Amino acid sequence: MKQKTLLVTLLALLLLTGIACASPSKPVIKADKTYFDVNTGLYVLKGNVYIEVKDRIITAGMARVSIASLEVWGTGGVTVTQGDIYFSGQDVYVFGLQDRAKIDGGVTFKRTGLSITADRVEFNWRSKIGVFSGNVGVTQNDATWTADRVTYNVETNAIVQPTLPLTAGSGG
């Protein structure tokens, strides 16, 4: 009976290991200090946090990560990059399975020919839409303007729904 139980357990472990290795989006997680909090089911990362999921990279001073839901709660000099897209801010919450992120605290977005600053941004990787709100400043090519809210489409590289600019001018 013990041999059957041992055999079934080994087969189950082999099956689960094979499934885990076949996962194409296995994240890479690095930090100065890392531990798993058994009470919350989250990895707690401190110092030089680096998280790579798919082709996205998140850095922060401190973060908590759920491997099951691919959720990330980060704080302290947060950056989120993918290709030529770059976000930075104070705090980030990534809804990994929904391909969405919220960044707060002095957000900066940069892309070739475009810079947007705001209090916060919500970005959806599926729709390729970023919604910037609160003290939004836009510099696009040589034009600079501000607004309360700006919606930007990464795929078309276009501002799709700004409120009327509060101020406009030429960049320098």
Topology record:
Layout: H1 2-22, E1 28-30, E2 33-37, E3 42-53, E4 56-66, E5 71-82, E6 85-95, E7 100-111, E8 114-124, E9 129-140, E10 143-153, E11 158-159, E12 167-170
Antiparallel strand pairs: 1-3, 2-3, 3-4, 4-5, 5-6, 6-7, 7-8, 8-9, 9-10, 10-11, 10-12
Signal peptide: 1-22
Domain Organic solvent tolerance-like N-terminal: 116-152
Protein name: LptA/OstA family protein
Shape: elongated
Listing every helix as H and every strand as E from the N terminus to the C terminus, the arrangement reads HEEEEEEEEEEEE
Query: Helix proportion of residues, in percent?
Result: 10-25%
Number of domains: 1
Largest β-sheet summary = 12 strands, antiparallel
How many strands? Answer: 12
**Strand coverage percent:** over 45%
Q: What's the overall average pLDDT, rounded? A: 80
Note the total helix count. Answer: 1
Quaternary structure state of the chains depicted: single chain
- Do you know the CATH topology? lipopolysaccharide transport protein A fold
Distance, first to last CA: 79 Å
Over the alpha carbons, how many angstroms does the gyration radius reach?
A: 20 Å
Runs in which pLDDT lies below 50 for 5 or more consecutive residues are: 1-23, 164-168
For CATH, the homologous superfamily is named as: Lipopolysaccharide (LPS) transport protein A like domain
Instruction: Quickly give the CATH architecture.
Output: Sandwich
Structural class of the secondary structure composition?
A: mainly beta
